[in-house]
Amino acid sequence: MLTGAAAGSTVSGLKLIRVITLVKGTVWQIQEMFQPDSAIRYLQLGERKLNEEQTQREYTEATVVFVLWLTFLAIGVAVLLRVPSPAHPLEYVIFDVMSAQSNVGLDSGITGPTMPDTAKAMLIINMWVGRLEIIPIAVLLGSVLQRLDLYR
User: Fold this and answer.
1) pLDDT tens column, 75-129
2) What distance, in Å, lies between the first and last C-alpha atoms of the chain?
3) Which of 12, 13, 39, 73 has the fewest CB neighbours in a 10 Å radius?
4) At what angle do helices 117-132 and 52-82 cross, to 10 degrees?
């Protein structure tokens, strides 16, 4: 549920191209330490050949999306661990939140019409963030904070 979406698809998990960019970009960053400064390096992503500047930009974007995706996942897990019932196993809670954020539709029995409104609201936020993706949400939050003059 975390990954598996193709670029341009309507699935809400992390897109495969971002995961590939993260993996290849991390290897590329490690290799950079062992190469001379004068080396001209490229990163091959599918049929695209990225220079160092493009690679850094793509890698940074993929890292930001990954970190924010995990952050919203962690917030959802924290809320669901606290609100419905602390008796639910951690792996079930993670499963339900990841399913909601990836818009998969599976659940482990925690999600249902009788869960508290706070837990429902959190899962709605996770679904919304997953569906719209993280970057538009971050831009929206940034513009709202800027208009409220809270961004200093």
Assistant:
1) 999 999 988 767 888 999 999 999 888 888 888 888 888 889 999 999 998 888 8
2) 37
3) 39
4) 170
Place of tokens 């429902």: 120
Question: Are 92 and 39 spatial neighbours (Cβ–Cβ below 8 Å)?
Answer: no
> In terms of DSSP H, where are the helices of the chain?
16-32, 52-82, 90-101, 117-132, 134-147
Letter for the amino acid at 50? L
Q: How far apart are CA 60 and CA 18, in angstroms?
A: 10
**Positive or negative torsion for Cα 84, 86, 92, 93:** positive
DSSP state of 140: H
Please state, in angstroms and rounded to a whole number, the distance separating the CA atoms of residues 45 and 48. 5
Q: What is the DSSP code (8-state) at residue 15?
A: E
Alpha-carbon distance of 82 to 67, in angstroms, equals 22
Q: What is the pLDDT of residue 151?
A: 60
Biggest alpha carbon distance in the chain?
Answer: 63
Tokens 């190469």, residue?
35
Place of tokens 């929206």: 140
